[in-house]
Amino acid sequence: MTTDGISQVEMLDAVLDTADTAFAVTDLRGRVRWVNRLMAEILDLTVDQCRDRSLPTLLVGAPDGPHEGVVLSQAVTSPADGAAQRWLEVRCTVFAEAQLLYRVVDVSRWRADGVEDQQRVEWQAELIRLADEDPLTGLLNRRALTRELERRLAHRVTGTLLLLDLDNFKDINDLRGHPAGDQVMRAIADVLRVRLGEGHALGRLGGDEFAVVLADTGEEAAVALADRLRAAVAALPLTGGGPTTRVTVSAGVAGFTSGDTWQAVLANADLALYASKAAGRNRVTVYEQGHYMDTAMRVTVMDRVRDAIANGGLVLHAMPMVKLGTNRVVGHELLLRLEDGREPRLSPGEFLPAAERGDLVLDIDRWVIGTAIDALVAHPYPGLRFNVNVSGRTLEDGDFGDFVVRRLAKAGVAPGRLGFEITETAAVTNLAAARSLAQRLRASGCRISLDDFGAGFGSFVHLKKLPITGVKIDGEFVRGIDYGSRDTVLVQGIVDIARGLGISVVAEWVERSTQVDALGRLGVRVAQGFHLGKPEPLTELLARPQGAWMRRPRLIAEPVTSENTTG
Q: Where is each GGDEF domain found (predicted)?
């Protein structure tokens, strides 16, 4: 329909462009599809420049999805342009199908009869505090600290970024409780603040990780400062509601110049920090290009995984778990693969560690769960059961358990058809979170197992603390099980204790028939490995006739002879 040659869409655009409220339409990921002129003005961009950019990123603190009520946010402007801060009132609602509508009002300009409304002034002051301050320690938060790093890079300031991570801090939370951990965290923040003095930007990135932006400071001076900070923290007697203990610090150092981006600098320091952890903790490592995965390659890997999630480049392979003696398949472990058709091909060991250092692994785990549940819906046979792996980062996602339960209920899938595997190392690192998730999933009827069992210190203690339904024996104990080694005694102990606790046992890394015989003598009833069946694409498995996936495939790892050699 048109009016005097003007379409309704054109009329609507004209009206919204003259409105005193800023509007934007985005997709569900927050990427801009349309903005009016006032929104572009607030963002200090042209209308065209706004398109396809992330609105929640441009509006610091804005919701990245539908949100009831008002959220206070801040407009991000160029650090070098000297523009005043703009504080915004943001609302975000669902708009049509798969789109979000953002409505923004610039509250910085509000006045009441020519005099600033005191309530709004206080509101803005509170917003500044919430937007920039870590609520636990009073230091800069992650957003404020990275903004400060970005500002210094824009002003062509050279310097160093220093990351500090407390070693084994989760032990304090797990053994003494989170209130004691919070008390320790505040004490350490005070020590860092006093030792650093003025002139440096100190912040808490989250968890037990701190960062310092050191302007006009070289790497050698940064290392010396990091050593002084480590010594100060180690000398601090931390009671935290229990016996006195001491905390050590690992550090990573990365220099920066005006040609760098803040993301690259943070990634470099992060790689150096992980090198300190891997080398034994309580030390400082300086980033050296080429000694770790190159930062550009790491960013490329992350981009590839994001694209794969969005465009179908991630696939699942299924590895059978076989009941020994009957050769009947009792379930499949789902393994993630990146098959996006791009070079170089990346194995899970190459792309998952990069994803686990950020929030991307949370999206991956949810994608795996959704894909597994969809397959169970399409093949509603009780005998088809899947196990999926849960990353250590996902343990910290407080909504993950509810997400799983909601998806299962909505799909009408019996929870017992879906099992979860958490590595023992991840569970020990965050025991409270692992226990909470295990309780939630088990209460809903899902199976939950402790993977790589026996690899960690005090493994049997974890059986008492975690409400699990099974354990998967670490493959290192299975590798030589048929050679009469000490592994036989250890596996026998695991089987006996598991049987006494009423939980199941699965052995992995079964590659020879002699291992099957040895495990059978020890009472292991279920196992997996290349001898029992290789992983295959889930789509190929499910394409077989109903029930065919429950039969064990022909032996894979037969002894090589002249009759079965294929050249």
A: 157-289
